[in-house]
Design goal:
binds adenosine-5'-diphosphate; 369 residues; elongated; alpha+beta; 8 helices; 5-stranded mixed β-sheet; Heat Shock Protein 90; 2 domains
């Protein structure tokens, strides 16, 4: 990739230089041609004078009228000026007409503008081409990073439960264990299996969303009740140090898919707890103003840089380096959330929480069909 980039830079510099030179050389040639044409025009005056002298010597002209006629026919780009009116046929001078000078100059100017315009158009096209190529380079690098993230995180997320289940099964086979221990092992194995199932479902859902095959099953639902139920669930499972403060407006009714909305809220809440820090406060608010429903989830974690905010909703995007990252995850959660919100006709945004942390805000139209 880097080699290709260097080749492109060198090639671009060469093309720009060659183009600059081409434009300069053409403009310069036009100027030389213009000066030469001027010289030719002026030299034609000598030839014309010589021809007229010959004609006068042969008495071909009786007066200036005849001479002027001869001039108009044979030298339309020249004019004759009579210096002495008393003896005009012996005292005249030949010079280029003002019009012929102007014609040469406008031809030169036309060529010059043509080369400059062509140069500008080509340079703009070139700049556009280089910009497009660089953009696709960057995109490819970004996709490569996502692919790397995906492989590392997915391997880790698959390996951990499989290893755990294997260990539990080995324990069951090797040791004599009582009924209570058996129950603990079975419970743990079930949890790990659930983890695997969740991961596979997330992958499937992402694929369906990406190929636009996922459809919502919309119905009128009480979002206040749904958020409260999910919060009760979370309150039962989260560590004691993490607090959740909820301000939920009553009777917020919207048209939506309950499963999809549950996934959205679950994902944002678990992210808030996961990235919010050990003894942080997670704030959840739900309001309905006019016909707009607004759900906000803000944590007190390290926050997200502006650069990452733009990329966060991409599939498999995880902040930082997968090799050194401490938190578990796949980078699928926010991709799914964003797509489900969009399918509901809503908008999700991410901003800084004050004094610290991150705030996710979802706007839904209350009566969206
Ligand atoms: P996952 O959590 O499985 O990695 P997500 O799609 O839910 O995937 O999140 C993508 C990335 O966004 C996470 O890896 C994390 O780096 C970042 N992120 C998500 N939510 C938060 C948050 N509340 N605070 C800080 N970073 C966050």
């Amino acid at each position: 990739m880097n080699r290709a980039r260097i080749i492109l830079i060198v090639l671009s510099i060469y093309i720009f230089a060659a183009f600059g030179w081409w434009t300069y050389a053409h403009c310069n040639n036009s100027r030389i041609i213009y000066l030469q044409q001027k010289d030719v025009l002026e030299m034609r005056c000598y030839k014309a004078t010589f021809d007229i002298q010959g004609a006068i010597n042969q008495d071909l002209f009786e007066d200036t009228l005849g001479l002027s006629k001869f001039f108009a026919v044979n030298y339309p780009d020249l004019e004759v000026v009579y210096v002495n009116v008393n003896d005009p046929l012996n005292n005249f001078m030949v010079r280029p007409t003002l019009q012929s000078y102007q014609d040469l100059e406008s031809l030169y100017n036309r060529k010059l503008s043509m080369y400059i315009a062509e140069g500008i158009v080509m340079i703009l096209l070139l700049l556009w081409g280089i910009f497009v190529i660089f953009r696709s380079f960057r995109k490819e690098l970004f996709l490569k990073k996502l692919q790397g993230n995906f492989l590392l995180s997915i391997t880790h997320e698959l390996k951990t439960p499989i290893t755990a289940i294997k260990l539990y099964m080995e324990t069951l086979l090797k040791r004599n264990i009582n009924a209570e221990q058996m129950r603990t092992i079975a419970d743990n194995s079930l949890q790990e299996t659930q983890r695997l199932q969740d991961l596979v479902e997330k992958l499937l859902l992402s694929a369906q969303l990406e190929s636009h095959k996922y459809t919502l099953n919309k119905q009128s639902i009480n979002l206040s009740e749904l958020v409260n139920e999910i919060l009760i669930n979370f309150n039962n499972t989260r560590p004691d140090q993490q607090k959740i403060e909820a301000i939920i407006q009553d009777q917020v009714i919207i048209m939506g898919d309950p499963n999809a909305l549950e996934m959205i809220i679950n994902n944002l809440l678990s992210n808030g707890l996961k990235y919010g820090g050990a003894d942080s406060l997670l704030k959840v608010t739900l309001d309905q103003v006019n016909k707009e429903t607004i759900l906000c989830i803000s944590d007190e974690g390290d926050g997200i840089s502006d650069e990452d905010k733009k990329l966060l909703f991409n599939k498999f995007y995880r902040i930082g380096d997968e090799n050194t990252r401490k938190t578990k995850g796949t980078g699928l959660g926010l991709f799914i959330v964003k797509n489900l919100v969009t399918l509901h006709g809503g908008i999700i945004s991410v901003s800084d929480n004050h004094p610290k942390g991150t705030k996710f805000k979802i706007k839904l139209h209350s009566n969206a069909e």
